[in-house]
Amino acid sequence: MIEKRQFYINGAWVNPVAVNDMDVIDPATEDVCAVISIGDQADTDAAVAAAKAAFPTWADTPLEERIALLRKLGEVYEDRRDDMAEAMRLEMGAPIDLSRNSQWGSGSWHLEGFLDALEGFEFEKVYKEVDRIRLEPIGVCGMITPWNWPMNQVFLKVIPALAVGCTMVLKPSEIAPLSSIVFAEIVDAAGFPAGVFNMVNGDGVGVGTQLSSHPDVDMISFTGSTRAGTAISKAAADTLKRVSLELGGKGANIIFADADEKAVKRGVIHCMQNTGQSCNAPTRMLVERSHYAKAIEQAKAAGDATQVGPTSDSGRHLGPVVSELQYNKIQGLIETGIKEGATLLTGGLGRPEGINKGYYVRPTIFADVTPDMTIYREEIFGPVLAITPFDSEKEAIDMANDTVYGLTNYIQTSNAERGVRVARAVRSGMVEVNGADAQCGSPFGGYGQSGNGREGGVWGIEEFCEIKAIAGCPW
Question: pLDDT tens digits for 221-256?
Fold first, then answer.
């Protein structure tokens, strides 16, 4: 049993002010794998006070020194790769190969992107020969991160904030806190000054709300559900702090008849990655009607070939979803899809064959899904794909845009002009064409109820800065 009841505050591991234990559940076995403590107002206040006290000195630290510490953090992160991978496997059910590669690797990938962006980043520039425009650290930042890609989100927030001179309090997901505890150990080993980085475990109603409403917190950066993002925005409103939100999605994958032969299979695999627990997953497959029958066959074959297995086993199989709550939600939406008349191609209710324990979901694909169906409109956050036909390019664009979300859309076509045309027409913060991945340092974020602000690269650095215009000062 792992016992991690302490918080990291002001450069030291400290006990919570009051005892409030919480079990961490291994979703692969449904067993308790660790015990943490849930913080309260006194713990939050102590962490914020430490960050506030450390801010002036850290903000004045030369950029070269801050970058040197970030590079040291990267070295320690590399050394702790196996520890981090095991933590994520236990807490959120990522199979060990996925955890050790993609889940762990997302952190080092973003660090590389930020370090590249900092090389040419101008914190001060001349405007019209006489004015100076400065970018300065916004101050104390509250960071609330999710369970589905733990290090991806921690790095997207913590690294740029550290780079520009902000101090911070991190509140990771209470159901997947182990990786952030390891991360705090990494920050400590890298030698960052006391108070610059602090971590308090807690839930959204408690520590999350306390950070969002705290008068000494200058900014909240949150990744999670749209519902929680709304609550955080309301809690932050009284103090008028900056709120940066990366929220849900219901991405459309538009497959034209001239798409390459692997387009459908690629879309299924992408949808199912991380057991469907990705906000940018292409969960709506829109297929040109002349290609629809063939696409359904290809999708079913890809779904049937998708394996589910233990998180401790090597391989490209799917693991469980993160919790009993998430499992029950997904089961309810699969049942709704069946009741509303969608055609079940593969998967369905219950656990996969041969599995009787753990929050494992059958990889599920529906065809003949119409825009009025629940599974077409709601973010399921599980291994569930909805396929719908379309008749024209305009209809495909209209269908892709018929959502409250706007995170990532996908386009599959061999017609380059159409690819560009449709990419410009869909309303989303990101578009991927023909399986191309975004480049390291490219901005991540969305439109509408997918949130505001951008993470990654130059844009992620700017997110943690205030803009100061100086006029009339002799240079």
Answer: 999 999 999 999 999 999 999 999 999 999 999 999
pLDDT tens per residue across span 292-312: 999 999 999 999 999 999 999
Contact 239, 214 (CB under 8 A): yes
- How many residues appear in the chain? 475
- Residues 192 and 101: beta-carbon distance below 8 Å: no
What percent of the chain has pLDDT above 90?
Answer: 98
Please name the residue that has the structure tokens 């991190």.
Answer: 170
C-beta separation of 430 from 246 below 8 A: no
Identify residue 208 by its one-letter amino acid code: G
The domain spans of the chain are 2-247, 252-439
Q: Is 279 a catalytic residue?
A: yes
Catalytic residue, candidates 279, 288, 379, 463: 279
Would you say 315 and 307 are in contact if contact means Cβ atoms under 8 Å apart? yes
Rg of the chain taking only CA atoms, in angstroms: 23
**Backbone φ and ψ of 277, nearest 5°:** -95, 60
Whether the CB-CB separation of 40 and 21 falls below 8 Å is answered with: no
The whole-angstrom separation of Cα 195 and Cα 409 is: 40
Reading the block at residue 332, the tokens are 């309810």
Q: Domain 252-439 is classified in which CATH homologous superfamily? A: Aldehyde Dehydrogenase; Chain A, domain 2 (3.40.309.10)
Alpha helix segments (H runs only) across 289-323 = 289-304
DSSP secondary structure of 224-275: S-HHHHHHHHHHHHTTT-EEEEE-----EEEE-TTS-TTHHHHHHHHHHGGG
Q: Two tokens at 474?
A: 């002799």
Q: Which of 246, 288, 379, 455 is catalytic?
A: 246
Number of neighbouring beta carbons within 10 Å of residue 451: 27
Contact 30, 359 (CB under 8 A): yes
| CATH architecture of the domain with residue range 2-247 | 3-Layer(aba) Sandwich (3.40)
Reference 235, options 142, 139, 138, 140; nearest CA is 142
If you ran DSSP here, which 8-state letter would residue 126 be given?
A: E
| Token code pair at residue 251 | 């991405």
- For this structure, is 246 an active site residue? yes
What CA–CA distances, in Å, run from 330 to 159, 294, 453, 455?
Answer: 33, 27, 29, 28
How many C-beta atoms surround the C-beta of residue 140 within 10 A?
28
Contacts of 359 (CB under 8 A, 6+ apart): 27, 28, 30, 93, 320, 321, 322, 323, 324, 326, 327
pTM: 0.97
Residue 212 and residue 24: Cα distance in Å, rounded? 24
